[in-house]
Amino acid sequence: MVTRQFEGKQHASDYQKFRSGPSQEITDLIFSYMEERLSKPYGFAVDAGCGTGQNTRTLAPYFKKVLGIDISEAQIEEARKAPGSPNVTYSACPAEEVPVGDASVDLLTASIAAHWFNIEPFLKEVDRILKPGGCLAIFTFYLSIEVHYKDCTEQMTQVFAEMIDSLVPYEHEKVRHLRNGYKEMYESIPYPDKRRIENILTKTRMPIARLMGFIQTFPMFHIYLETKPEEAKEMIRTAEERCLRLMGTSSGETEVEVWLQNVLVLASKPQ
Ligand SMILES: C[S@@+](CC[C@H](N)C(=O)[O-])C[C@H]1O[C@@H](n2cnc3c(N)ncnc32)[C@H](O)[C@@H]1O
After folding, report:
1. pLDDT, average across residues 59-70
2. CATH number for the domain formed by residue range(s) 9-268
3. Residue from 55, 99, 48, 101 nearest 72 by CA
């Protein structure tokens, strides 16, 4: 049974607005791992659970063709609307049944998505579609967010920690994979050549209003919003007000620096 937490059109358009692609650090780690295992030029990449395609599009320059797949039609519709490259296409389908041939894929990525998949059938599908030497790269950020701004970093970070704590009751049980740094998933990968890299720190500058929008893309926030709409909206309003007060500004466009810790799991199918 697949998990569907990203179906709404509004959720998909928020995704397009508030989510960005992977950091350069993560992209560099993936391609240096690949370079040691597969010779160039690379042919085909699949990005599973592509959402609105932020990670899919970053793969375009490295491959002849790239396919982004997602279980949600609404996410795929948004991905298709975004400006893209001619070598990138999208398909609405599950990561456990990718519509591509056996041994045809050089790289399969899943950005902030693999914890939603059914791990066993997904890993079987990975094994079917990867070429010998082909690579799997799954990565995500953790839910601890540091928000840096002048001398109020500690208090700002506390505001976000409280927000995330209040979302815990609405968290799907599969988020445990993300919380445990993809440990179980890493252990389930049957290939001897695999690596789990923790503590990849990414720092991104963004307006505080955008960071509030980013939190609202979390599926657990959507469940909160459906269950207790007024309370959910009030939580965001209060948190934004607290942040602006701490920062001594009235403008949501004031930039903060957001520090996220990420984990990346890499594996390569035996030759
Ligand atoms: C948190 S979003 C990540 C989107 C995007 N990769 C990114 O980096 O922002 C997770 C995505 O995985 C998709 N998803 C969940 N289960 C899936 C499955 N079994 N097969 C394919 N996609 C799935 C959801 O529809 C959603 O778009």
Report:
1. 98
2. 3.40.50.150
3. 48
